[in-house]
Amino acid sequence: MVIELQNKLLWTEEKLKAWELRYFGRTSEKQNAEDDKQNRLFDEAELNATGREQPVTETVPVAAHARKKRGRKPKVETLPVKEVIHELDDDERACPCCGKARPEIGEERTSEYEVIPAQVVKIVHIRKKYGSCSCEAFATSEQPPVISATGPAKLVKGSDFSNRTIAFFITAKYNDALPFYRMEKILNRSGLVVPRATLSNLAISAGRAIGDLIEMMNRDIVRSPVMVMDETTVQVLKQGAGPPGKSYMWAAVGYQNGKPIHRFAYHKNRSGAFADKLLEGFSGYLQSDGYSGYTHLEGHRNITRVGCFAHIRRRFVESMKVTGQGGKAQEAVDLIAKIYHTEKECRGLLENGSMNEQEFVSTRKERMAPIFAEFRSWLMARSYDTAPQTLLGKAVAYAQSQYDAAIRFVDHVLLQPDTNIVENAIRPFVVGRKNWLFSGSPHGAHVSAGLYSLIETAKANGHEPYAYLAYLFEQLPLCRTESEREALLPYMLSPSCYAPNGM
């Protein structure tokens, strides 16, 4: 009876402390400056902002040791350079003694960056027309009486905007999280009146134009041996009768010949049946959090589910926020840190060529085995001496339920200890959602899913978003076959195939 009351009191105190932290405490899981950044999910840029430019540290080898070279990080790698020469006039150069011009002995150079605001240029395409030839043979031929020069191939037929301009609009919203109502004001300042409805219609038309590419990406991602999935909420208006409800944007990361593919898909709810639909045709390792929409797929259609140590760790961090550092929750966090440290060391050897993929998998398994055993023994011990209603008790219970799935990441080279890769893929959508708040309709949400899929896949494969979209929108209208369109997929196309600045 006394133990039960003590546990109840402890649970009540934790609950009160948790509510205080929820409203008045910080939400970051960061404990100190040395914490592994890999364990921080959905951190905002404000956490890293300092208010001034930070010096960059460069290692410069010298005899017997290495020194740190400090200085401001360069603003750009390559930019057009305009030189302005400042000279003295003849009177200022004249020697006050004899009147001769003083000789030039050198120069001093300083530089500054000038940002030129958006400039709108109206391009008029003049297509020359040619009539019939005056020769006698032409009169009896079957040649058309009038021919004309070919105009530009348009991504959106009949649009008043060039393909590159549409690429700029799409990049600004879906990569830079700039809502169309803000873009409308920016364009107005440049002298171009473009209603946000026009911008929305252009986005929908662009989404329709890349439909074949999205289908190819969906086809290729289910062929991946590994799939990492997650989802986040989105508010969608005009869903029919009744008030707008909570909808979901699902995200998945897979691979084609080792190159990442990011897939976004909108659905009105979080039903596990939709996860089944997304994974239709897939067999392999599915990594996710502990949501039941994924866990029911265990062993289904040759799918092996893999868990996430970041989600396990997060629950112990929540307990630490209430009970303080140095307790039992800290022990779990430290054990999980060993997993990440070992992963970093092994993957470093793989990346520098010290081992191949098979050696990496076997070495990682061997080095992880004692850490896994230690963590499992710790969980077993805590399950007997920890009140299940407390935050620590709940963290232990969750870790035990996910343990077998979480340790499976060692079985494949493309798997990592957590689902951070897909959560990082979702982050641009989450940032954008804070600005534009909602989608106007399910159709708009589906279009957004396709555009996010293309842009995030492009970024993951080393493309600069605007440069890739500008090249794609110029080339796509010229494609006549499926193979020509397939060659434009971001994981098929090398960034070196077009100019780095997209011009």
Describe the structure.
There is one protein chain. This protein is of the alpha/beta class and 503 residues long. It has a domain at 308-410. The protein contains 17 helices and 10 strands. The strands form 3 sheets. Strands 5, 6, 7, 8, 9 and 10 form a 6-stranded mixed β-sheet that branches. A two-stranded antiparallel sheet has the order 1-2. Strand 1 and strand 2 form a beta hairpin. Helix 12 packs antiparallel against helix 13 (391-406). It is globular, with a radius of gyration of 30 Å. The N and C termini lie far apart (76 Å). The model is unreliable at 33-57 (pLDDT under 50).
Features:
503 residues; alpha/beta; 17 helices
How do you describe this structure in short?
The chain has 17 helices and 10 strands. It has helices spanning 2-24, 90-93, 136-140, 163-174, 180-189, 196-209, 211-221, 272-278, 292-295, 309-323, 328-351, 357-385, 391-406, 420-436, 442-460, 465-475, 482-486, and strands at residues 55-62, 65-72, 129-130, 147-148, 226-236, 246-256, 259-267, 284-287, 303-306, 438-439. Strands 5, 6, 7, 8, 9 and 10 form a 6-stranded mixed sheet that branches.
